[in-house]
Design goal:
Blueprint: E1 16-20, H1 24-30, H2 35-55, E2 60-67, H3 75-98, E3 101-106, H4 114-127, E4 133-141, H5 143-159, H6 170-174, E5 187-190, E6 209-212, H7 222-233
Parallel strand pairs: 1-2, 1-5, 2-4, 3-4, 5-6
Helix pairs in contact: 1-2, 2-3, 3-4
Bound molecules: 3-methylbut-3-enyl trihydrogen diphosphate (2 copies) and magnesium ion.
């Protein structure tokens, strides 16, 4: 008997990995530490995961760093998270640039502090010609918010006579989302055992494979990433078609 053909989801098909980085607070609480310690350790996990993604040949990595709903957290925690974000940006941008990483940020910039907006604008401009890894960080991001923005833009275009209702299709609509230059995620990973999307890339993940791992985000790294990639390789993506 001849061997079965390999799964259609070969590694070459894994272009874009998106991660919901969850569990920093519980990681810290479990150790009797303040939640901020979990966020700090989470930043190290970001470093490790970005490095591993480069080594493992991932083309696009998107990280959910702060949701539009996370503004509801206590002011002190938001302040800690924004402080860490500043630290991360100041510390890492140069190294990311030298390592060939192209940085993009999605989410509502209006709510971010001006100096953070400046840092992310600079990072995007500095790294725009890099192509080794496309790293997108979702900050103050909410998928419904993003979709509504695209709806508003669509309506404005129709009203201005620049777009006919008949010409509006998935492709045209996608181009009005903040992920315009980014392919849809093939794999969405969520850490910490929670099994939900929490308003992350809802349109873009229509056919993504989902992997939920018990691991808290601060413990995530190369090993957990390659394990998820291995699991992905065993999946068969059908996009609604019949089983071959
Ligand atoms: C993820 O960890 C970081 C952010 C959402 C900003 P959490 O802070 O949500 O950690 P848990 O879920 O409370 O453990
Ligand atoms: C999702 O985690 C947002 C990020 C990881 C940035 P949350 O911890 O905010 O999600 P919920 O509240 O458990 O759904
Ligand atoms: Mg959480």
């Amino acid at each position: 008997m001849t061997a079965l053909p390999s799964h259609p989801s070969s590694q070459e098909d894994l272009v874009h990995v998106a991660i919901i980085m969850d569990g920093n607070g519980r990681w810290a609480t479990q150790r009797g530490l303040p939640r901020a310690a979990g966020h700090r350790q989470g930043m190290e996990a970001v470093r490790a995961t970005v490095d591993a993604s480069k080594e493992l040949g991932i083309g696009y990595l998107t990280l959910y760093g702060f949701s539009s709903e996370n503004w509801k957290r206590p002011e002190s925690e938001v302040r800690d998270l924004m402080g860490l974000l500043r630290l991360y940006l100041r510390r890492e941008i140069r190294e990311l640039h030298e390592g060939g990483v192209r940085l993009r940020f999605i989410g509502n910039r209006d709510r971010l502090a001006k100096d953070i907006v400046r840092l992310i604008d600079e990072a995007e401009a500095m790294t725009q010609s890099n192509a080794r890894l496309n790293l997108t960080i979702a900050l103050s991001y909410g998928s419904r918010d993003e979709i509504l923005g695209a709806v508003r833009e669509t309506v404005a275009k129709v009203q201005a006579g620049e777009l006919s209702v008949e010409a509006l299709d998935e492709h045209t609509f996608s181009r009005m989302l903040s992920t315009v230059e980014i392919p849809d995620p093939d794999l969405v990973i969520r850490t910490s055992g929670e099994q939900r999307l929490s308003n992350f890339l809802l349109w873009q993940s229509a056919y993504a494979e989902l992997i939920f791992t018990e691991c808290y985000w601060p413990d995530f790294g190369r090993e957990q990433l390659s394990q998820a990639m291995e699991e992905y390789r065993g999946r068969e993506r059908r996009y609604g078609a019949a089983i071959a």
